[in-house]
Amino acid sequence: MAYENVLIKGCDDPANVTLDGYMKRGGWEVARKALKSRTPEEIVTLVKDSGLRGRGGAGFPTGLKWTFLPKGSTKPTYLAINADESEPGTFKDRYLLERNPHLLLEGVVLTCHAIGAKHAYIYLRGEFPRATKILQAAINQASAKGFLGKKIFGTDLTVDVSLARGAGAYICGEETGMLESLEGKRGYPRNKPPFPAVEGLFACPTIINNVETVMTVVPIVERGIDWFKSLGSEKNWGPKVWCVSGHVERPGIAETALGIPLDELLNEHFGGVRRGHRYKAAIPGGCSCGIMTSDEFGAKMDFDALRAVGSSLGTGGVMVFDETTCIPEALLNFTEFYAEESCGQCTPCRQGTGWAARILRRIVHGGGTMRDLDEVVRLANGFDGKTICALADAAAIPIRTYLKKFPQEFAEHVERGRCSLDVGLAACAGNLHFISGGH
Amino acid sequence: MPTFKLDGRDVDFRPGEMLIEAAARAGVSIPYYCYHPELSRPANCRMCLVEAKGAPKLIPACQQPVNDKMDIQTTSERVKIAQADVMEFLLINHPLDCPICDQAGECKLQQYAYLFGRPASSMEEAKLKLEKRKVLGPHVVLDQERCIACTRCVRFTQEITKTSELTMIARGNHNVVDLHPKHELANAYSGCVVDMCPVGALTDRQFRFQARVWYVQPTPSTCTLCSRGCNITVDRRGERAQRTEMKRIRGRRNPDVNASWICDEGRYGYQQPGKGARPVRARGATAAAAELMPALERAQERAAEMLRAHAGQRGWLGALASGAETLEELSALAEVARAADPEALLVVPAFQDGDEDAILRRLDKVGNRRGARLLGFGEDAAGLAKRRVLLVADADARPRAGLPEALVADLARDAMIAFVAHERAWAERAEVLLPLANAYEKEGTIVNFDGVAQRIRRIVPPPMDARPLHHHLADVAAGAGLAPIETDTRSRLSALAAGPLAPLDPSRLLEWGARLPKERGGDVTYFEEPAQLFTAAPKAYAEGEYQPFMKAQLPPPAIHVGAGAPSRDNERFEWFGPSRTNVEEASAPEKAP
Amino acid sequence: MYGKDFEDELERVESRFPPERKRAALLLALHAVQRVKGFVPDEAVHWLAQRYDTSPADVQGVVSFYTMFHDRHPGRHVIWLCRTFSCQLLGAGAVMEAFAGALSCEPLGQDAKGEFGLRWMECLAACDKAPCALVDDDMYETLTPDSVSLVLDHVRKGGGGGRIVVEGGKPKLVPLDVPAPAGDSAVPRLGGR
Questions:
Q1: Greater pLDDT, A270 or B459
Q2: Whole-complex ipTM
Q3: Residue B418: which of B406, B431, B409 has the closest Cα?
Q4: What's the whole-model pTM score?
Q5: How distant is the Cα of A62 from the closest Cα of chain C, in angstroms?
Q6: Worst-scoring range by mean pLDDT, A323-337, B291-305, B571-585?
Q7: Which chains touch A (3 or more CB pairs under 8 A)?
Q8: How far does the CA of residue B459 sit from the closest CA of chain C (Å)?
Q9: Do A142 and A258 lie in a common domain?
Q10: Which of A196, A214, A230 is the last residue of a domain?
Q11: Looking at per-residue confidence, does B461 or B285 come out higher?
Q12: A335 close to B (CB below 8 A)
């Protein structure tokens, strides 16, 4: 049976961003029915039993997170939607926001009903002005129709959706960094405990979910657990939106069940490796995942199976590298990314990522030594696991896995002072600039 | 009390306490930079990471409340490696400034590098270049390169003074502490950020390059510049009487009086005035009496004359004091005045000045107001107008403080003997002027507005003829034929402890004071040394295994008050412990001439 | 400070947050100020500090934390070119060189006329359209080194974004798949009432 899209359904139709266009496809019906026929507890149990895992990168069981809200709190509960998609290689949330905004809003209504939240804040990247406008227009239309705001769908329920904007900081995609930024401050992640479900936005109980996760709640409520568990495998169920970029014929978006093998995903949905080239490596879910060599492409794309090949599912943002890719250059690019985006709060990340980037720059551009290769892994082990948030942990993963799986390329850079691949400046850009502050 | 497992043994804890505090009370030292007992706990330095059984990652001890199921290791391999890693990361961009940095000798980075760091660095890259001499305000200079981004200073201006002058700018490696360009760090507690900066990033403009900290002697004392009586540590340089001088005043932690802070007035108010601003030689009615003995004789003469003139009368004598005097001095003044005239009027007038705030500063700038009241000194100076003879004492060392000019000038009298610690215009009209030791030059006891009795210590010897008031008074009274008064400060305190300060036991009055009972018959609460957070004097120091040059610098161990490692280094580092040197010396009885 | 309409809109935005947490609107306010002035001037820092009951240093700390806020004028149109690896693989480095050459300025700088500022930006989440750039509110996708002048001209004439396709060996700017909607995104008019 062919897979039927539920999340990207309608995304090809420009009218889908309008309320009428969305409703023509049966949109908003799930929310209308569920608000009247299902209690909050029923929806929480449904989502929990479905085994839905967060689609923002961490893969935490969503329904379980919802149950962490304290019972009987006198403070208001908030829903915060993390639309600060900044993980390199990931663009599925942008795609969904700009083409299917009403599905997100419908998911927000269901989620707010389930967790007892009256206010939802959608935190969008500052670099998404287009998505901001589209989403705002969708909110306005839905409000005008009585689907958002006070007494929605003729019930006593209030679901008030507001937009908040970031301004160019990856660390504001970390859930507590996002909360700090939402509160109008520097985006410093908070120490946990206390967890956001207990003390989150404005010190009130808060649930934070990714865009895709909340959108997936809608088909779960509509079609039920049996459908959801018909896709994927044990503890890794449901649909997933993939975003593939790099050296494939047709970079873009596709939706399948979780657990599709990587090579099948790339070959069937994205045209395979670009013509005249061969696969070399891939990162399956954003740069915070370990790199996979081409002979590992048979691995299933889900949370658990990828661990066996030393990687992880992350966001599902796949970057594909063919034989013209310089792996040390990739590592430098990503490490500079982490150094640039580190918030600077805690010592190991602030100092360690900067130091690692400097060492790697020497390795890649000439001036590196064999000792540097060991040194940079030692550094990665030094800042891994010692910090307030997981940025340092994420920065350590590429360093360790790239050096482990492609040691010869690094050794060549050290010995020859430059890349052994004869690809010219454009692809192996020796002119990467280290961004400093961007002001 | 509930217990938890710490390094293999059962240790008790108070519910709500953080791991680092509970460990400290058990004598286990966990290193830290960003933690401060009075501020919020961001746990961003990551130096206090410890291993907890069952937790996959190391946890920061400053932020972790203790529960009875915990099993903590503070010296395991993982912890030691983490500490060494954090030290290495901190030193990556840290400039090699130790030879020129004020903080050397009391720098946490140095101390922890010695205790927890790796012997060699593998950092070969260029270090970041930032501003090195940024003047933040009248008292503080910032060196951004030395900063370890612990954010103590930023949090201080946000949470304590609530003025938020300081902020972190930029992010990541380029994170720096800075001001807004059009503003300066000029709040009333700006010097506190220097105290609390664990490294030499924030330095005191006045102390910069003045002395190496291992050459100064720290002495605990109490500030007398307002009725709060904040606890201070005064650093002085030089052993010989002629050359000794005060180099620096720092806040000393006392949770019951001043938390960890002192205001800028108290910190910089010791400025020794230039020559001529303070009388150091006694003066009598004639120029020839410009020496102590002749002046004393003149005073004795005049006192005897006045006693004869008013024999049998009452209500002719007024004793006026500024309130900056100690209890021992004021009680001597009261004793002599009452001996001469049983209805002598004792006054310490009101003196309100400057600002008051919810943190420390009080409008009442009389350090010993409460003490004066306890001894029977009133505040109303109106009755003095009718007094013919005046004894006026003003131990206040500030130029624009002490007894108001207007008050004293108006008083008509037959005779006036003045005791002053700072040049005062009204003192010109005194027949005899005897110089007083100021608050840094004598031992004594004062009582703050809250009823806490505290000690002030002699840090530097008083110059030339200056002496504590009771020493001068003893000579004047004896020569005038009055009953002798006790000159030994400690004996005076014991007498007071049996009288107005009862039931105070002076032997239990430590450097952190004691709260006197609110009503008669109540108990005295003696304050003890606040828990020290880091007591691990380096094993090497304690066992004598250190480099020969360090051995030469280490002064002999002093007798200290309270428990703790017997090392003088403890008061150099902000380990929230007491200053322990010099107490023995400072308690030595003074010699009257 | 920037007119009654601006302040009315700002108040509307602030009303979306709890009354004692008005400060949560700070980032939105800064975006709005930047829309008016092109950057965040000192007067705005002071004004917002007072408005949200904090210090100018605190607001300056927020401004300096985020890459998109400028504390001095960056040029009328800021070109944010993505430097993360998918874009690098497909030639972002050469595109940046082309922009720098066309504008005679360095990355992180602006051209002599102050018309364009040139910046690198981390992953713009349009990796399938690599190499891409964000200019003002608009995306320019699948750029090539010889298409930069088309982009610059398009921006000068009002912008709106576009995609570069190569036809007959020459670059051509065609409309985006997702057109830019009308309206001002800087301070979103928040619905729900």
A1: A270
A2: 0.93
A3: B431
A4: 0.90
A5: 24
A6: B571-585
A7: B, C
A8: 40
A9: no
A10: A230
A11: B461
A12: no
